[in-house]
Amino acid sequence: MNKWIDLSMPISTNHIRWKSAVEKKGNFDNGDLFEATQLQVSCHAFTHMDALSHIQKGAYNILDIAPEIFIGDFHVLDLSNRITDNFAVTAEVLKSIWPNQQKYKKFIFKTCWDTHYSYSSQEFWGNAPYITDDGAAYLASQQIEIIAFDFPQDYPIRGWLTNTMEKPLSKHVTHHHLLIKGVTLVEYLCNTKSITSSEIEALMIPIAIENTDGAPCRVLIKNK
């Protein structure tokens, strides 16, 4: 029997990009009856899922996404043998790996980017592959319900290195072309080197938080 494999980027307090806090509110060492940890973290940090309200006022939130969307069989878009620093994932690149069958509506990228650089390094974010505008438009032309990325997929994401946020939204191409159409985005997977098949069974479960535009997400997969 195939085992479940975790593709989640663990939430930590020492990541170079995000500031999160994990604090003991109950501690055995202090004589407390229970260990009780309090967590503070962005809903768009580490492995997470985006809802449309992330980019559109008044749109649906994370709890409005049906579980049928993020549970099921995913087709693997494998670029692991082609990825280099600043690799542009264009429409031409995507067409070369796109499945001939039209049965798939759920997709996951396998670039193994975290084997090139640690996800806690500046190089992981600053030298990353990225989806081009025509690549995102090509994805948007397919019948996709959900797509998961194991690299920082929009080029402007690297702007955090210089404390900049590029505008307009159209520069953030997967959000502009895909999320705006209602395609669910799952960002910042790791450990995709463990994917060994072209199709996987996956559970991509966001934390149930009311009225939020995203949520931290646990991603578990089985090879088929």
TrEMBL record:
SUPFAM superfamilies: Putative cyclase (SSF102198). The keyword Nucleus does not apply. GO terms for biological process: L-tryptophan catabolic process to kynurenine. Keywords: Hydrolase. Pfam families: Cyclase. Transmembrane segments: none annotated. GO terms for molecular function: arylformamidase activity. It comes from the Bacteria. PANTHER family: CYCLASE-LIKE PROTEIN 2 (PTHR31118), KYNURENINE FORMAMIDASE (PTHR31118:SF32). This is Metal-dependent hydrolase. The lineage of its organism: Bacteria, Pseudomonadati, Pseudomonadota, Gammaproteobacteria, Pasteurellales.
